[in-house]
Amino acid sequence: MDGNMPEINNSNARLLARGMGDLSEEYFCAGWLTGCEYALWGDLIGRDVAGVQRWSITDEEKTELRLAHEMAGGWIVWSDEAGDRKFLSDEDWLRHLVARCAGAAA
Description:
The protein is mainly alpha-helical. It has helices at residues 11-28, 36-45, 59-72, 90-105, and strands at residues 74-79, 84-89.
């Protein structure tokens, strides 16, 4: 994983990606645990998402993550194609999430 995240051009999105990666490292000793984006989203909305269990991060961590998300205007996901994290706008993230949840329910 490239620490500079060159495909993430928005500085607020890079901050979000670092925060999400830091939580993954803190809770699981993994720079980006598989399903990280779904687990952390689940923590923000208060329920499991796409068949991935929430991590139950602290209220302070939720506040920081929510603020980073709002500042970035989107969410960070893992891209197998890129072999790294990538930024999705809120609209694209929600579209991705709906498709993922539909696949998890099938």
